[in-house]
Queue: 2 jobs
Job 1
Amino acid sequence: MELAPLLYDLAYLVAAVLFIFGLKFLSSPRTAPLGNSLGAFGMFLAVIVTLLKMNAETGIIGWPVILAGVALGGLIGGVMAKRVEMTGMPELVGLFNGFGGGASALVALSEGLRARGAFVDPDPANIGDIVFPIAVGTSSLIGWVTLTGSLIAVFKLNGVFRKNVFLPGQNGIKALLFLGCLAMIGGLVSTPGSVALMVGLAVAACVLGVLFVIPIGGADMPVVVSFLNSLSGLAAAATGFVVSNNALIIGGSLVGAAGLILTGIMCKAMNRRFLDVVFKAYGGGAAEASGEKRTVQGYEAEEAALVFDGARSVIIVPGYGMAVSQAQHVVQEFATVLEERGVDVKFAIHPVAGRMPGHMNVLLAEASVPYDKLFDLDEINSEFSDCDVALVVGANDTVNPAAKTDPGGPLGGMPILDVEKARTVLIVKRSLSPGYAGVDNDLFYRPSTMMLFGDGKKMLTELLMAVKEL
Amino acid sequence: MIHLTSGELMASITVLVLSIFLGFELISKVPPTLHTPLMSGANAISGITIVGALFAANARLSAGDHVMATILGFCALVLATINCVGGFMVTGRMLRMFKRKGK
């Protein structure tokens, strides 16, 4: 009996176990850096074992191709990871998701092409003839959808492509495309190695990915990015069946499950069903909600600063506007100045604030705000009634009382931060324009609310100066 | 092309199903602070498809009929490596920023 194949498989299992520990440790702040290192080490191990295995079985005949691919990919990945600004994190994570899915789809296509003509297996016990085409088809379908869907999401996130496109009967088109893809996978089983079917499947799945994300608006991106993350894992798991490798099956399905959990958390935070996000595509179309035009007096920073005089507790509520104006550093400075004046400062983070899960947490961490000052919706909501000032920086829908007062509206039922209960609500915002949901925010017009109109960074800098002079 | 008995297939499907359940159990309680690093770390792990990409790219570019397959394998390898290297690096960078009070 030959021992080597068994050793390779055991080494792959060790890599998979490292992934399991990696993910487990990633879910607690103290152990997370170790978790990331374990995951990276598992990946390194899997690559080394693969090279050893190839060397022993067929020889590494394609070493120039392999070296070039790893060097190029490593260089691009490394530079991107080093260069990215924390504000650009949603785009980068989205892009990496897409690349993972694209890689799986390309592996499937490559193996599918290479296997042409090899489908006459004399062994009747071999069901690989059926499993292989199904795996190639499934991996292609999920992988291509992940790639093009992620690219559209990235374009939406960085503003290249802002419009939410609604085609008439788009759900019907998506359903037809999906059924077409399944039919082509079925076709691959009966005519394995058909290039036309593999290319047709790739094209249909790419179009499906585009149509999947294109109608969905910016504020739903946390849901979409989490779901694409899950898909990139499932694509890798399907590729595991293409190349008969358990490390891919285990690693891929762990990621698939993790992404689904995050998707669920994001949907819950918006009180939406996942299917509604995807198929109803609320793209903020109904912006002209109420006919009456209300106006409100804006304040100057010097006037607004007075509310911090004598304040004992302040809760800062950041939103996507903080990310857009890159105001996280001045927000941190402002919090420090208040704390030096003996004010109790906390941050209230809505789960879907920003454009990806945990977006605000990353930005504030970049600005050196300790994470134990950031509080989740459930932890902080009861504290607004005792707080002197709620300072809202570029958030809108996540603090809109319409979620409670208008249960049938677009925001109806979404859990919000109860900033309206604070003694004074100070809102830094560029204009009165409604948020993504297209619902006018009644909070802006309340007597206890002071509006500071302007860019988040600029207004907070002015506010900081004014408070220092108190 | 792969050679597979029904027993081997069943074992692989069992691994798939159990891993999905394991994934749900592993990450069901994640604090919001870690949502982004978890997502980007998990995403880097999905780069395990690099193993498949290595197999797909392991051929001479002159190997007649399969040149296209090798080129696709090369592209897969580039994308998968970006996914792994970039993913783990950027997750590490993010995690180094998270601090507790008084540090």
Job 2
Amino acid sequence: MKQEDPGSIRSHLQSKTLRPTVFWRVAEDIPPRLRTVFNVTSIALPLFLWWLATTFGQFDPKFLPSPAQVLTAFGQLLQSGALLKDTVASVWRVGVGFLGATLLSIPIGVYGCSFASIRALLEPLFGFIRYMPAPAFIPLLILYLGIEEEPKILLIVIGVFFFNVLMAMDTVKFVPKDLIESTFMLGGNRLATLLQVIFPYVLPGLIDACRINLAAAWQLVIVAELIAATEGLGRHISVAGRFLRTDEIFVYLIIIGVIGMTLDLSLQYLMRVSCRWADQKR
Amino acid sequence: MYLQMVGLNKHFETKNGPLVVLKDIDMNIKQGEFICAVGASGSGKSTLLRQIAGLDAPTAGEVRIDGQTVTGPGPDRGMVFQHYTLYPWMSVQKNTEFGLKLQGVPKKIRREQANYYLNVVGLTPFAKALPKQLSGGMKQRVAIARALASEPKVLLMDEPFGSLDVHTKEAMHEFMLELWQRTQITVFMITHDVEEAVFLANRIYALGSRPGTVRKEMAIDLPNRSTAVKRHSRFHDYRDELMDLMRQHGREALAV
């Protein structure tokens, strides 16, 4: 059986070499100075466009206030103490709810997933409840707990707990089996393996999960305050909306963003300090 | 006999019925021997090691160490895995003493013990380093020091140099022989590398594939254990005999 020589394929190939680039690098770092420039631009450019629009465009301040008007509103709110009171109220709710949910969910997630038996017991139920949006529980929470602080905090707990458990379980799945078995070979019992090997190994993953779920907690506190509250950042936004105080809405939106980002950065810092060994090579 | 496998069988349940991985394995190992079990993939050599380690229970038969039947994992058997199993958040020092910590040895004593074995493996200058700062060969040396720190009855090694480059591997071989002579420890190592086995072991078990059985037992008698011995004719005889055996197994495995 003789096959015909197909000839060289080379003449059909379009010659393509990867051109060097700075901006479009894939999975590679850009020079640090360029990164700083981009990071600053990321904030400065939208601010500048906003300023441009309100200075040269004919916008009703009730529709789009200028940066200066928002700054003035910020000064007034700061002076009257309303901003501080609302911030404290919201931060307190998020703090208590998130901390409670985290303290509950991490042991259950980490230790639950280490034992396939407990995982089999919990995973179906939690996976099911997770898909119920937490705000949908509000009527029930009001019915059971009234309209004080408890339902708001519990809303955050519900919204964070199930996600945190499942994410913690996921981090445990990635603990190498060899690492656990070598601990057994070194004389470790199950409890020691859990506390001294599995937990430290998943800690960076847990902090990451907390970062993501903290953002969810912030969304929920605003939703909770839209329903029934006398103070809080979300509450103030809904009131300001009713009185067409667009400048105040802007102030509160920015404040919420700033607080959220600060919390995120502090968790990132905590991770860098406590889990130096897990530093990504990049 | 010090380390004994008696009628060891291991089956795994699969959809198509039981899969026989180990069949009627009998081994008798004296204290202080350096044993290599050589086999191609599919010879069940890793499974065999897991039975000795106690990480898996045999379907039939048993493993005895110093007269005691193995029922589970424990620190009387030091284990070095193929993949790096150092705890990435612990320094080299902490890694080395971790086994002793798990067994409740007071801090001062375990520190001394760890320092001794870090010195044995030549890593005292790296005591404070994290595993990620070490090369592959160094990581395995820490793993060996960690296993030895509990003064185990036998050192089990699962292709410990499989992922090292040729030169590092050679250095580790010399290191292993020196360590073996110095500590007089019983070593049971599995490998697919025939030269490695001939160079290191004083006795070799050649395993056949599917199911894993002992096909040949071979005492290695070389004039000395320097790298130069690899050019010795007897070294070549041992190696060629084992290679032929493995080749034959490979063909049989393909024919099935």
